[in-house]
Amino acid sequence: MDFKTPRYIPMSRRRRIYEGKAKVLYEGPEPGTLIQHFKDDATAFNAKKHEVIEGKGVLNNRISEYIFQHLNDIGVPTHFIRRLNMREQLIREVEIIPLEVVVRNVATGSLATRLGIDEGTQLPRSIIEFYYKNDKLNDPMVSEEHITAFGWASPQEIDDIMALAIRVNDFLSGLFLGVGIRLVDFKMETGRLWENDVMRIVVADEISPDSCRLWDIKTNDKMDKDRFRRDMGGLVEAYTEVAKRLGIVADGERPQGSGPVLVKG
Question: CA torsion sign, 77 to 83 to 84 to 87?
Answer without folding.
Answer: positive
